[in-house]
Amino acid sequence: MPPASPSAPPSTRPAVDSHAHVFEHGLALAAVPRYRPDHDALLGDYLAQLDANGLTHGVLVQPSFLGTENRYLLAALRAEPARLRGVAVVDPAIEDAELDAMAAAGVVGIRLNLIGLPAPDLGTAPWRGLLERIHARGWHVELHLPAARLQEVMPALLAAGCRIVVDHFGRPDPALGVADPGFDALLRHADSGRVWVKLSAAYRNWPDAQCAQAGRLAAQRLLEAFTAGRLLWGSDWPHTQHPHVSYGATRQWLDDWIDDAAQRRQLLGDTALNLFQFQGDSA
Hints:
This protein is α/β, with parallel strands linked by helices. Helix content is 34%, strand content 14%. Helix 7 crosses helix 8. The protein starts with 15 loop residues before the first strand and ends in an 8-residue tail after the last helix.
């Protein structure tokens, strides 16, 4: 990966984009990728988006099509250690030394992207051991799967003591929205105190014309249950498979979804800064 030009956060109130990806067209793909990117999403371009939209920090998530090959992600994190943190995808048998190297680079969590895949048996030895090691390092587990399937994995993760970050509003059924029983079950997990939800990628849940309205209704339900102390916002840049979406639009949606500026500042600031372990940057 070509090095990005060193950058410094703009002199604004700290604000975190909790979900983005970087990659280059032509990288080695996972054995069975869900899709194949035909473009680049370069670190320098992402940092420019942060600067242009008043975001000081970002969280890079390993894209599904790269599988457990995290080298490109780690190179990006090492290029911008003050501004970036990462979420990796790992094999449950990964060695401790590799986890430690990831932590040193800025990884603070692992992702289980189960879209189109069966849930792993988290009670088996490899997974149980991995979750213990993740928990010991203070990392979280990020979940990406339809709301109807969240219960396949959330109870086991909570029983293991893990902190959980749920992607993209919990991925409610587009036709059901907040009436999705899986979404309602997600709301009930707010009482655990160990679940966070990303207000991100509304266009993956609803048609474009409904993103503002449907996203607002879902955001309001999540805000009531989780408070701004356990909600996050993410751009989902570069909006893979949705190239018409702009970064600025995704940031504007947050203002459309949550009226109270103090709540927006909290979820963009202290909530994200603390969860993703940005030290010394709280507002």
